[in-house]
């Protein structure tokens, strides 16, 4: 599923390069609401950039080319 990444998505993906994270940690670290992070994570899972490991944990599957080039 194609997904156009916004600034928040790019920040989330970059943060996930550091390892497995949960929405609460990402929200605090990136200064977004937990609900917004959760929404963006669902889109990133659907786009197959992120995996939901269960128990509220997410990990990076694939870093999009547009972020690798930055």
Describe the protein's architecture and organization:
- There is one protein chain.
- The N and C termini lie far apart (23 Å).
- The chain is built from four helices and two strands, in the order αααββα.
- It has helices at residues 7-16, 23-30, 34-46, 65-68; strands at 50-54, 57-60.
- It has a single domain (7-63), classed as Arc Repressor Mutant, subunit A.
- A two-stranded antiparallel sheet has the order 1-2.
- It is of the alpha+beta class and 70 residues long.
- Helix content is 50%, strand content 13%.
- The model has no long low-confidence stretch (mean pLDDT 92).
- This is HTH marR-type domain-containing protein.
- Pfam families: MarR_2.
- InterPro entries: HTH_MarR-typ (IPR000835), WH-like_DNA-bd_sf (IPR036388), WH_DNA-bd_sf (IPR036390).
- GO terms for molecular function: DNA-binding transcription factor activity.
- Residues 5-50 form the HTH marR-type domain.
């Amino acid at each position: 599923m194609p997904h156009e990444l916004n600034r928040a998505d790019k920040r989330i993906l970059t943060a996930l390069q550091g390892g497995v994270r949960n929405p609460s940690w990402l929200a605090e670290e990136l200064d977004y609401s937990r609900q917004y992070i959760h929404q963006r994570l669902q889109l990133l899972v659907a786009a197959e950039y992120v995996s939901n490991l269960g128990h509220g944990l997410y990990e990076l599957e694939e870093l999009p080319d547009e972020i690798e080039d930055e």
